[in-house]
Amino acid sequence: MGDDLLAPLDLAFWHLESPDHPMHLGALATFEPTAGTGPERAAELLVARASAIPRLRMRVRGVLLPPGGAMWSKQRSFDVSRHVHPVWLTGEQGPAELHGLVGELMERPLDRARPPWEIYVIAHPDGGPFSVLVKLHHALADGLRAVAIGAALLDQGMRQLPSSAATKAPAGPRLVIPDPRRLATSLRSRLDDAEQVVGIGTAVMRATLDSRRSAALATAPSATRRVATAVLDLDDLHRIRRTGGGTVNDVLLTLVAGMLRRWALERGEELSGGDPRALVPVSRRRPGTVVRAGNTLSGFLVRLPVGEADPLERLRAVRTVMDRNKAAGPGRGPGAVAMLADYVPPLGHRLGAPLAGFAARLLYDVLVTNVPLPGSELSLGGCPLTSLYPLAPLARGQSVSVAMSTYRRRVHFGLLGDGRAVPDLDRLAASAHDALAELADACAVRPV
Fold first, then answer.
1. Cα separation of 172 and 253, whole Å?
2. Cα separation of 286 and 154, whole Å?
3. Mean pLDDT score, 247-253
4. CATH number for 271
5. How many structural domains are present in the chain?
6. In whole angstroms, what separates CA 82 from the centre of its chain?
7. Do the Cβ atoms of 289 and 301 come closer than 8 Å?
């Protein structure tokens, strides 16, 4: 990878960050040690494999032209050992110690003068399972790119799928007189782009004017982070899907609504202030194409029916809005706001970052993302991967993000919260099991 300008959305994520508001993704993985292989050997492998990934040698530096722009540049004195850190737990506090440590590590911004990533190998004193926390700046990777980087660190290595794009025909001789057909095609493309930008912008404005903030999900940023996790059985979700209809993702969004409802009621908060809006990221990468650098995201905006007491009605409401979103496509509606980054000049990203950060909390209340993982068994130095919890960054002014991934027939929830605003984040994570049981019982009693 040579020196390249940051793509527009990458640049936006880079400028959105501030010292008290980091913009990195995370993934907390747990491995089962094998005979002769444990956290020390895993750290050695991660150092060797990370040093072989060209993308992880690149840092961001500013450029004079275009104004406000930045580029990826290979760090000359790259030392991979400064990015991979061993950490030992005491084992005195059980899982709470791991979650506390990961929360502290997630609140630390990455060093912007170096390649923006870190790995922590977290060992347990009893010699049991060890954990690996990977932090990648959002400018470096979106969810699919993060999965590709993670795969390159594991025993299975990077597996790029063949591109589905058709091979380009050789370029013909350059014409002195423009081809009218090409001019017409180019003009139509520009008009379509302009229409799309206007449509997305109008939808975003309408959505922000209709903002009804959820007290539980809004906060003044405290620069602190807290982590909680939960695991659900994928087969349980499929049983609900077969009975209640929709997709597994519809069921997961319904469960998140049920989790937030139970959590708010436990806190004694009113549910009549308006249902929270979730931004559900959608990748714009074509299926079967090579996962290249650069964020390619759109999204759907979904009202989570937290105020609805009936779990089946919550599922119906989620199905209705998701069907509407999918029919319109990821390039339409307010959830496609990330696509507007392509039409903002670099200086606009730099100067407009504070405004964009403020606008995010007017557009949505919580990020809910589902990160796809390879279906095969994964390992590190022969140590099987047993769980993987993705962690999504918080938007400024928001207290919780929810990320999910499916591996080995289980769905792993990774919750990241503002440490001061949500000291009870573990209760929100625990409510995943209650929300699942409630929805499963409703489907059994009143099948749709």
1. 50
2. 25
3. 97
4. 3.30.559.30
5. 1
6. 25
7. no
Peptide bond into 66 cis (omega under 30): yes
Q: Kindly tell me if the per-residue pLDDT of 226 is higher than 60.
A: yes
- Alpha-carbon distance 171 to 24, whole Å? 41
* Residue 157 pLDDT class (50, 70, 90 cuts): confident
Least confident of 36-45, 188-197, 347-356, 428-437: 188-197
Q: Quote the domain boundaries for residue 252.
A: 1-159+186-448
Mean pLDDT of 304-313: 95
Asked, for residue 4, whether it belongs to a domain, the answer is yes
Q: Is residue 222 part of a domain?
A: yes
Sequence letter at residue 111: D
Retrieve residue 249's tokens: 């993702």
User: Does the residue 175 lie in any domain?
Assistant: no
Residue 167: inside a domain, yes or no? Answer: no
Rounded to an integer, the average pLDDT of 31-44 is 91
